[in-house]
Specification:
10 helices; 4-stranded mixed sheet; alpha/beta; about 40% helix
């Protein structure tokens, strides 16, 4: 079943659509290359909160309209006002948005419709999966403007290899999608004609996982490496026992033994 933007303001810079448990959230300001303006960020935060609170949504796909996924901050809004030279640059709700995506209990796939720069790469890194066409290019262009990749470093530095982070943060050099996948910024770089099929394949695989199990496992990927081996074994033994005896775990086991899909999985056509 599919639904679109009924009930949302027509002038919104971020669109949403729901189909079979997947919410697609689209940055829709191609005239300025989906720049992160205050207005777009406000619309994006509202859409994300909606998707996180909507029970029918199991997976979120973040994408953009036009040839560019996101060009970064709207630089027109970053100019200091002559009558207020001490006013801080606009950050609006960008930190909250990256946190929403990073902490989301629902898996988030970034479907890059094209190029991304600077702040746009913070969104890419915050998502659990990032898939881009081989034609896309990327750059951390902040230093060439005399600013720094400050906020986005919180998510990006958790993805990139340290040497690659230093290389591209410090030089501002443009790099291609194959390189982005090699250094950990992307999950996959694929031919443009395979982009939608690849995103759909990941979404389908995620829909087959238990919603509670997915949320917990997403946290494990980030939390467990910071634990000592002894503490990790203790905590994970407790969690394992808890999940095997949970209602969701018992349903999954019963479904496997009964040779049927679990109640949360998509039904065969």
């Amino acid at each position: 079943m599919t639904s679109s933007d009924g009930g949302w303001p027509v002038e919104s810079l971020v669109r949403r659509e729901v189909a079979d448990g997947v919410a697609t959230i689209t940055l829709d300001s191609p005239r300025n290359r989906n720049a992160l303006s205050v207005r777009l960020l406000g619309d994006l935060e509202a859409r994300l909160n909606w998707a996180l609170g909507e029970e029918s949504v199991r997976v979120i796909v973040l994408t953009g309209a036009g040839p560019v996924f996101c060009s970064g901050a709207d630089l027109k809004e970053q100019r200091v006002a002559p009558d207020d030279p001490h006013r801080a640059p606009v950050t609006a709700s960008f930190p909250e948005i990256m946190s929403l995506i990073w902490e989301s209990p629902k898996p988030v796939i970034c479907r890059l419709n094209g190029t991304a720069r600077a702040g746009g790469l913070g969104l890419v890194a915050a998502c659990d999966f990032a898939i881009a066409p081989l034609t896309a290019s990327f750059a951390f262009s902040e230093v060439r403007l005399g600013v720094v990749p400050a906020m986005i470093s919180v998510t990006v530095l958790r993805r990139l290899e340290p040497r690659a982070a230093a290389e591209y943060f410090l030089t501002g050099e443009v790099f291609d999608a194959a390189r982005a996948a090699e250094i950990g910024l992307l999950t996959r770089a694929v031919p443009e004609e395979e982009l939608d099929a690849t995103v759909a394949r990941y979404a389908d695989m995620l829909l087959r996982g238990g919603p509670e199990a997915l949320a917990i496992t997403k946290g494990l990927v980030r939390r467990v490496p910071a634990l000592t081996v002894e503490e990790g074994m203790r905590q994970m033994a407790e969690l394992s026992a808890e999940r095997f005896t949970s209602a969701e775990g018992q349903e999954g086991i019963a479904a496997l033994l009964d040779r049927r899909p679990p109640r949360w999985a998509p039904r065969p056509a």
